[in-house]
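Listing S7. Sequence submitted for prediction.
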Amino acid sequence: MSKRVKGMLIDTIREQIGENRDILLIDSSKLDANTANRFRLALREKGIGVLTVQNTLARRALNDVGVTSLDSLLAGPSTLVWGGQDIVDLSKEIAKWAKDVSELEVKGGSCEGETLDAAGVESLSKSLSRDELLSKLSGMLLSPGAKLAAALTGPGAMLASQVEKISEGEGGAGEAAEPAAEEGE
């Protein structure tokens, strides 16, 4: 392969990866054609890119964009997987496929410049996603305010309820107070 063709392939890899720096590396070479097609279509629907690459070209393209953490994993058949909402969602999706399809092998990945092995990707897939973390965080931030509001309105509501009962004549104290006032006159 000429240098010009290699350069074009490296440029294509860089273009497809784009701004993504959190990338997983899998071996999908043992998948049959139908399973591989279902796999790629399902990932594409979720906004996840899949690209089977030649290791040396991928290494050069990734190094050009600053991803060097995958260098040690680029051996044997390699497929780059990137995209989705975040690296946790990506790892969840790949871990699910690896569990369902035994021929799919997770080799590792790169998360914020750190190298992940297959166990690291599995561990990451069990983490909370970005949306789940934001939801949990907002609940934690709003909880003290809700407790404070309940504590402040609780006694006032109880007092208002007692005043209402007295004004309607349901309270025993209000009825007893009127005849006592009449006797004193």
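Caption to Listing S7: primary sequence and predicted structure tokens for the chain studied. The beta strands are 23-27, 48-53, 78-83, 105-111, 114-117. Residues 130-168 form the longest helix (39 residues).
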